[in-house]
């Protein structure tokens, strides 16, 4: 805290550009830079005056890492090309056999995955079909129960199935009266021979 206080005082009293970076024993970073949020301008000025490059080793490391990644990328592209049948002219017999074995192993893995997906989809479809069959059977049972109740009501009330089918709730029942002799003798009847029950 005292060092940072002195750094702030130097910046104000001497109008100096100052950058202070400290790492504690636990690895915690604490820094102070005057007149800037970033210490880069101070480092750039230091490099210019000292004629040195603070970032050269870092840049070299990044360049080497980039070259390694490019080489890995080139090898992977070549392997991918070989797996689709390109760039196989330069391969030896043993390399071709190894490539063939890799393709066979890959094919087995792909078939196993495909079979797993198909079996999963089949199980899901079977469950859906079973669920739909259960719903169908339930609806069919409910329909048969309703029909049975309506037929029972029709039979108790003396209503025929034909009447029930034509709106049994609003049916007017007609009955022949036994005190009409002309209906019983010749089997014919007129409009006056029928009445509401």
Describe the protein in words.
- The protein folds into 3 domains: 1-52, Transcription factor, MADS-box (SRF-like), CATH 3.40.1810.10; 54-90; 92-153.
- Strand 1 (19-23) and strand 2 form a beta hairpin.
- The mean pLDDT is 79.
- The chain has a two-stranded antiparallel sheet with strand order 1-2.
- It has 197 residues and is mainly α.
- It contains 6 helices and 4 strands.
**Percent of sequence in beta strands:** 5-15%
Q: What is the end-to-end distance?
A: 111 Å
Using only CA atoms, what is the Rg?
A: 49 Å
Structural class by helix and strand composition: mainly alpha
Overall helicity = 55-70%
Task: Indicate the low-confidence ranges by residue numbers.
Answer: none
Averaging pLDDT over every residue, what do you get? 79
Could you spell the SSE succession in H and E letters? HEEHHHHEHE
Task: Provide the domain count.
Answer: 3
Please state the oligomeric state of the protein chains shown: single chain
Summarize the biggest pleated sheet: 2 strands, antiparallel
Overall strand count: 4
Pfam family, one: K-box
Organism: Hydrastis canadensis
GO molecular function, one term: DNA binding
InterPro entries: MADS-box/MEF2_TF, TF_Kbox, TF_MADSbox, TF_MADSbox_sf
Summary of the model, kept short:
The chain has helices at residues 2-14, 40-50, 56-83, 93-156, 161-165, 181-186; strands at residues 19-23, 29-33, 174-176, 194-196. It is mostly helical. The strands form two sheets. The protein has a two-stranded antiparallel ribbon with strand order 1-2. Strands 3-4 form a two-stranded antiparallel sheet.
């Amino acid at each position: 805290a005292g060092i940072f206080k002195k750094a702030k005082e130097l910046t104000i009293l001497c109008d100096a550009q100052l950058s202070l970076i400290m790492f504690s024993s636990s690895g915690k970073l604490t820094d102070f830079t005057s007149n800037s949020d970033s210490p880069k301008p101070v480092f750039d000025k230091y490099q210019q005056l000292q004629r040195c490059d603070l970032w050269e080793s870092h840049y070299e490391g990044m360049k080497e890492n980039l070259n390694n990644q490019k080489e890995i990328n080139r090898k992977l592209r070549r392997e991918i090309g070989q797996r689709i049948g390109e760039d196989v002219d330069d391969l030896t017999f043993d390399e071709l056999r190894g490539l063939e074995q890799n393709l066979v192993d890959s094919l087995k893995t792909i078939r196993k995955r495909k079979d797993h997906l198909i079996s999963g989809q089949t199980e899901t479809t079977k469950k859906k079909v079973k669920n739909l069959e259960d719903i169908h059977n339930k609806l069919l049972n409910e329909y048969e129960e309703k029909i049975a109740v309506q037929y029972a009501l029709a039979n108790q009330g003396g209503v025929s199935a034909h009447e029930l089918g034509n709106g049994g709730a609003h049916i007017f029942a007609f009955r022949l009266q036994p005190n009409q002799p002309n209906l019983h003798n010749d089997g014919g009847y007129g409009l006056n021979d029928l009445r509401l029950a």
